[in-house]
Amino acid sequence: MIRLTALLMLFSLSACGVEAVEEPETPREFQIPKLDPSKVKKVDIDPERLKPRKPPEIVPSAAADGWMAPATTRSPDVCKDAPEPVAVDTETLTPTPLPAGAHPALTDPNQANETAPDVFKAKFQTNEGDFVVEVRREWSPIGADRFYNLVKIGYFDDTRPFRNIGEFMVQFGIHGSAPVNDVWKEARIKDEPVVLENRRGVITFAKCGAPNCRSTQLFINHKDNLMLDRQGFSGFGRIVEGMDVVDKLYPCYGEGAPRGKGPRQDLIQTYGNAYLDAGWPLLSKIEKATIVE
């Protein structure tokens, strides 16, 4: 009876010139599939990972005793008309060998394990002049110990500040000899809380983005870089003499390749000074670093 009534209504609508439209089906993409409980995987989540991360505690030691690095002496036009780097064919390079009379720890990091004094200074002699780093172990004990040992074994002698970004920092700490780089690039130290702010003149170990990857490379801050504090760059010392010399370290190659004109770090590791001197001959030179007190 109901079917007959529906047919009569359909006939009446058609007779009046009105077409009956069937209700469309729900599009497939809007249909909610049924879940098969047997195929749902259980994932165990460590509750520690759900806790918000606590930012590193920062004590402004750099300013607490009134210390402040002098303002920059670098001219904004220093790199005007600076020459381009020289193209380097690495197939023609011979990796720089271990220097004669090298300290045994240069090829065995386990021998560089002394504990640094609570306070000490290191003098860096460069072709631009000298600068002095004051280190306080309370700021970064692990970093201070590593820096102390690197200076004592002559690690920084005859090396190049290879990355210099004017409004950021200058970077050095890859050795000039390939055999030394082979062993030291994996000699990493643990991260530490940030105590000394990354202000102009503060020196800190470079980091690779992964935890506990500090090794031998260093930053000297050209300006206040407090964003490095939030990234865990733990300063261990500050330039107390010769900040004008740091400003003179050759800056015109800038960022490293491929983002800039500077050298590739992996090729410095592989070829040492032979690579740098062939392509970036104007880089400043750290001639010698020594503990002075």
Q: What keywords describe this structure?
A:
8 strands; globular; 293 residues; alpha+beta; Cyclophilin
Overview of this structure, please?
The chain has helices at 2-15, 61-64, 141-152, 178-184, 227-230, 243-248, 265-271, 273-279; strands spanning 119-126, 129-136, 163-165, 169-172, 202-205, 218-221, 235-241, 286-291. It is of the alpha+beta class and 293 residues long. The protein has a domain at 119-291: Beta Barrel (Cyclophilin), CATH 2.40.100.10. Helix 4 packs across helix 7. The protein is globular and about 75 Å long. The termini are far apart. Mean pLDDT is 86; it is low at 10-23 and 56-63.
In short:
This protein is 21% helix and 15% strand. The protein is α+β, with helices and mostly antiparallel strands and 293 residues long. It has an 8-stranded antiparallel sheet.
Topology:
Layout: H1 2-15, H2 61-64, E1 119-126, E2 129-136, H3 141-152, E3 163-165, E4 169-172, H4 178-184, E5 202-205, E6 218-221, H5 227-230, E7 235-241, H6 243-248, H7 265-271, H8 273-279, E8 286-291
Antiparallel strand pairs: 1-2, 1-8, 2-7, 3-4, 4-6, 5-6, 5-7
Helix pairs in contact: 4-7
Tell me the major beta sheet: 8 strands, antiparallel
Helical run tally: 8
Q: Please give the alpha-carbon distance between the first and last residues.
A: 109 Å
CATH homologous superfamily grouping of the domain at 119-291: Cyclophilin-like
Q: Which of globular, elongated, flat, extended, rod-shaped describes the shape?
A: globular
Oligomer: single chain
Q: Would you count the extended β strands for me?
A: 8
Residues in β-strands, percent: 15-25%
Give the mean pLDDT.
Answer: 86
Might you state the CATH topology name of the domain at 119-291?
Answer: Cyclophilin
CATH class of the domain at 119-291: Mainly Beta
Low-confidence stretches: 10-23, 56-63
The ordered string of helix (H) and strand (E) elements is HHEEHEEHEEHEHHHE
Measured as a percent range, the helix fraction is 10-25%
Order of strands in the sheet with the most strands? 3-4-6-5-7-2-1-8
CATH architecture of the domain at 119-291: Beta Barrel
* Secondary-structure content class: alpha+beta
Rg (C-alpha, Å): 31 Å
